[in-house]
Each structure stands twice: as structure tokens, then as C-alpha cells.
Amino acid sequence: MFEYGDDKPKEECGVFGIYAPDQEVARLTYYGLYALQHRGQESAGIAASDGRSITLHKGMGLVSEVFSDSIMQGLKGKMAIGHVRYSTTGSSLLANAQPLVVHYQTGMMALAHNGNLTNAADLREELGKKGAVFQTTVDTEAIINLISRYRRDSFEDALVKTMMDLRGAYALVILAEDKLFGIRDPHGVRPLCIGKIGRYYCLASESCALDTIGAEFVRDVEPGEIVVIDEEGLHSRRGLSKTKRAACAFEYIYFARPDSTMDQLNIAESRRKMGVELAHECPIDADLVIAVPDSGTASALGYATTLGIPFGEGLIKNRYVGRTFIQPTQAMREVAVRLKLNANASVLKGKRVVMIDDSIVRGTTSSKLVDMVKKAGAKEVHFLISSPPVAYPCFYGIDTAEREKLIANQLDAEGIREYVGADSLHYISEEGLLRALGTEEVCLACFNGAYPISVSDLNRGKNNFESHNSCG
User: Among 22, 224, 231, 446, which residue's Cβ finds the most Cβ atoms within 10 Å?
Assistant: First the structure.
């Protein structure tokens, strides 16, 4: 039998930026990052600028671990950007933490990136031949090098030329020349939205960060758009022509906070509709519907309401557990699962249970949860998934592992059912997912292998570079 690790794809990254001379921009950035903590827990950083110089602090760990009040006091300025990171290929190093700050001929620049460039290795090779020196293994540094080399033109023109060289997914926030810039790739794979606080503006990966700091949601950054925020307010220009929008479907399924809205779609409502579609596709005669919290909860409620089955808290989440480290023995791995989730026997005993989760990536945790619910006394456990089978890796900023380690790439649905030990198993169909979202403008590559942006560059020139590396 194959070996699988955790069931969930790892978070991408989160970015935040604000221009507000009349506010404590670093502290607001801290709160924005706190709201985006679910998008990355390995490192955090904030860069603040007074328009001439940039002050940076970053470190390994959670936002609350990296920043203290004394550190925040030292981050002065009228604009700031911040970043929380998860690295997909294991290089969890301070050097790779963001934002990245550089000096170039006419000033300083700070940049934070959510996404992954598919042609990063080629860019680094080409830049290296021209004398560029790299201090990190992140693709973000290639973006900074390109901007610096094109800087002989206006900064906005340099950004446009840089975008023409980039392939892949990216949402960028940049401090330079007394301005805050936001950029989204032409497919809109990674999210970025605009908020307004007082008379000034801010940028964030998710609208929940805007709510946290009391900012008003304005709109999403359009695919291929460059947003410029300065003393005059907000203006934008077209960086690249629009192509077919392909927002990441997993944002709606799992990654984003349920209180966020992305590209006019509310996350919680989208997940509820996934549960409704599951109810239409796979109605089960059951006594109880439970969720694998938290991202399975809205779908479970949608399923239960549609079929008139009671919803109960069959799995209880320990909300005080943060990061857990990989345990050396099978017994300790099972303890790690129980630290995060525990079965509520008083709710489950003697019941035919429908358990709804958002996804299965490798399968091991799913099997432990099914076993946990059965040991708590459930007569039957029917496992429903609000995403299609994850059978292909993501190259745009999510760690879904190598293809051969994805359980849906190795086993069919019946084989997965046997592996996790459920009485039945059903994945939502791609058609059902699209109906729930109400749009076809999403990337489904991890389900069907139809990559909207070429990944052929990944087969060349990897060298020592993390060519499949989230957030740079």
C-alpha cells in the first residue's frame, strides 16, 4: 500500500499592503496579517516606508511570535506591506521569508508575493548570465531583479515589462517611489482585493483582512491589472491583456476564510452550495450529518438542510492547537490527529453518519477520522467530499505533493473508500462544483490536469531553485 502524509494541501501565502499617512500603517498591517494567518504559518514579515527609506522586520513563526510591541514601534512610515508564508518544498529559512527588500540605483523597493512562477528557473538562469546574484531560493527574487533591470523606464513601465516576462500565478504588493503597487496575474489565479480606510487605500489577499482593520471593501484587483496607490488616491493601468480568468477553485473549497468574498463570490455561501450539490448527487438515508471542521462545516450544513437530516457536532476541533510537528511513530501521529480533532461519542453513538470534508489529498488523516468516528459508536460512516478527486499537482502556489503521492492518482473511488474505511464515499462532480460556484472561470487543474498556464517550463533547468515553491 502507498504511504500518504497529511490529507490537506498546505496553505499558500497571504499579502497585505496599506498607504495611509494618517494611520499607524505597520500596526494595521500586523492586524491584516493576523487575519490572513491561515494562509501561512512558517514566517511573517512587515516592511514600512516613509517614501525614502524602508524598514523591515521578518522572522520564522506566527505573526504573534515574530512581532512584539517594541518591534512595531520601530516600523514607522506612511505605507507598509506584509506577508505570511508557507513554503511548499521545505526551505523554511529566514532568508526566504518575505517581504524582500532591495536597494537599486535610484532607491529602495520592497516586494511580497503570493503564487508561483512556472518559468522561474529559466528566468534565474537568464538573469544569472547577465550578472544577477541571488541570495534566496525563492522565485520572488527573480521578479525583483527584473523590475530593477527595467527601472531605466518609469516604475510603472518597468512593472509592465516585468509582467510580460512572467509565467505562472502571482499576486504582488510592492513599496517603491512613494507609492504602493498591487499586481495580479492575467488569469487571476491568486486573489487580491482593494479596501478603503478613511481617504486612503489598502490591498489584501482576502477581504476578511479588510474587515479586521475596519476598511471598506472596494473591489477585487482585475486579472492583469496594476493598481497604484499614493497621496492622490488610487489609479490603475492595464499591465497585460485579459485572458480567460482562472481563479483557484481551492480558494473557495478550502483555503479562504468563510467570511471572505473573492471575485464576487462569498466563500461560506459557495461552500454551502457545494453541500446542496452533494445532496442532489448523493442523497443518503442517514441519521446525522457531521463536518470535518472548519472548511467542511458550510457544506455539511447545506447537505443536511437540503435532505432534512439533523446536523451535529460529531467532531470537535481544539482551537488552541497551532502547528504540530511530524511525529516519528505511527502512534504519535495518531495522537497528533486527536490533538486537533476528537469524536463526540454522545452525538455519534448508534447513528448512521454522513461525514463531509472539503478534500482528500493523500488519505491518511481521512482514514484516522473515519476510524475515530466508528470507534465512537457510529453504525455507519458515509464519507462525502466537497471537491472532485485531487489527482494532479498544483504548480501555481499550493503544495498538493508529487503526483504519485496523491491518492486519487493511484486509486479509484472504490479503492479510496476501502483505504479510508468508509461505508461509502462520494466526491462532488466537477459539474456540481461549477454549479455551486456559479461560474466556469476557475482553475480545476488539480482535478483534471487542464492547466490554464503552461507548466512546460518546469521540466527545464531546476538546478538549486525551488521551481515548485509557493509564494516565491
Answer: 446
